[in-house]
Every structure is written in C-alpha cells, then in structure tokens.
Amino acid sequence: MPGRAEGGGISRKYQRIRRSCAKVRRMNYRNRMQDWLPKLVVSPSFFLILIFVYGFILYTGYLSLTDSKMLPSYGFVGLENYRKLWMLPQWWTAIENLAIFASLYILFSVTIGLGLAILLDQKIRAEGLLRPIYLYPMALSFIVTGTAWKWFLDPGIGLENTMHQLGWTSFSFTWIKDPQMAIYTIVIAAVWQSSGFVMAMFLAGLRGVDNEIIKAAQIDGASTVTIYRRIIIPLMRPVFLSAFVILAHLAIKSYDLIVAMTGGGPGQATTLPANFMYSYTFARNSMGIGASSAIIMLIMIFSIIVPYLYSELRGEKSQ
C-alpha cells in the first residue's frame, strides 16, 4: 500500500508538471503571436509600398537611361536623356518658375502662418472659432483649391466681373491671363491653402515653450516683441525646419493646383517640373526625358529631406 500511494503521488506530480509545461507553451505561443501579429498585419502594406513606390522609383530611374519614347523600351543610352533635358528651354522655364513659386510660397506661408500662430497664442476669446477656419483650406484637395481660385480670378466671372457689376467699371485684375503675373496667382492660391497648416505647426511649437523662461524674461522687463524675437522664435528652430521641408516638398511636386488653375499657361508661364514631366511622358511621347525629369525632381526632394533627417538624428544622439 505505501508503494502504491507513493506511485500515485509521483503520477500526480508528473501530471502537474505536464500541465505546467503545457501552460508555459501556450503562454509562449501567445507571446509569440502578440509579437508577430502586428508584423503580419503591416506586412501586406509594406510589400505593396515596396513594390508600387520604391519599385517604380527604381523602374523610372532605369527608364531615364533608355531610349523609351511612347512605350518603354530597353535600349540603353546612359545619361543622354539628362543631357537633352538640360538643353531644353522648356525645362529651364519650368525650373525658373519653380524657383519663383517655391521661394514666395515658402516665405509667405511661413510668415502668415507664424503671424496667425502668434495671434492665437495670445489666448484670444475667438481661438476655438478661428483655428478650424484657418485649418479648413488644408482639408481641401489642390484640385478644388485651384478650381475655386480660377473662378475667383477669371476676369469674366470672378472678382473683376463682380467689381464691374457693383459700379467700379475701371477695376481690372487679369493676373491669371498675364504671362508675367500668372505665376503669382499660383502663389496666392498655394499660400491660402497651406498657411493654416503652417499656423498649426507654429502654434504647437509656441505652446511647447517653457512658461518659466517667458516669466523670467517678463520679470527682467522684456517686452512682448522682445520675448518673441529673442527667446520664443529662436527656440522654435526645429519647427521652422520642419515647415521648410514640408513646404519645399509640396512646391517641388506641385502639379494638380497648376492643372486646375492655369494648365501651365498662359504659354509656359506657370509650367513647373511636374507639369513638364507629365507633358513629356504622356503627351509628347518622350518617356525617357520625362523619366529623367522625374529623377531630377526626386534628387531635389532628397537634397532637402536627407540633410534634415541627418540633423534631426544627430540632435537626438547628442541628447
């Protein structure tokens, strides 16, 4: 009997050990699933992005080195398309237009956005109403913005026509039809759409400044203008850099706003590199030159984003 009881005790201990091992295995399996489930969920999107974004970037780079015309072909020509591209006066016109558009777009978007952010940072009573009003344009697509501004600036149905109907018959505003001034109408529409978004970035930066620093400056007798100019704005350098990178990226790849407002005209007065790329790739049957212009645009964007990311990573490591 003692031997049987002892054997039964060993059996129960063995069963408990087996149950414990099974429980540990289930827990390990559950933990592994918790670790792998997010990766499994994200993996389809990751592979789609890998193929349809980075894969096609590489394919575009390859096409820029071939003699592709209306359809892709694989006759290797090296950098010949890039040489032809920089010899085209249309490409130089697009680059000049981009320089004007990007510089004014970034300057006025940052200036207006910062001004609106400083206004809202004064804790004005209507902040809850004004903030969504300022942000609303960014919720629209550039096609909608371009169409609305095209109607507004059209001399036949827009602002000029309205002024004439109100009795101001001498009023004239034909910038959108003027080859010398049309690019500035694009700037106006783009700034209108983006300045609210820049305002939100600056407002977040202003609200993140340590109040103790501001109070110390006020105790020392610094005026509000001095506090903003000497203390707050210098502390917002990362926000300025972020705004510059985002706006520069938007400027370089601007396409739909121009298509909706002017179609690149009058003539080529508002043609930007993205419009040039589309025209040569799909309308003029010069796919190789169109692909090379797309790669130049990509290099422009990389030349802005890569130094920014490098400075951010270096700043994080130094902290």
UniProtKB/TrEMBL annotation:
Q: What keywords are assigned to this protein?
A: Cell membrane, Membrane, Transmembrane, Transmembrane helix, Transport
Q: Where is the ABC transmembrane type-1 domain?
A: 95-310
Q: Which organism is it from?
A: Phyllobacterium leguminum
Entry keyword Cytoplasm = no
Could you name the Gene Ontology cellular component terms for this entry?
Answer: plasma membrane
Superkingdom in the source lineage: Bacteria
The record's section on InterPro entries has: ABC_transporter_permease, MetI-like, MetI-like_sf
Give yes or no: UniProt keyword Protein biosynthesis: no
Q: Which residues cross the membrane?
A: 36-62, 98-121, 133-153, 181-206, 227-252, 287-310
Membrane topology classification: Multi-pass membrane protein
Q: Name one GO biological process term.
A: transmembrane transport
Q: Would you identify the family this protein belongs to, as annotated?
A: Belongs to the binding-protein-dependent transport system permease family.
Q: Where in the cell is it found?
A: Cell membrane
Name this polypeptide is given: Carbohydrate ABC transporter membrane protein 1 (CUT1 family)
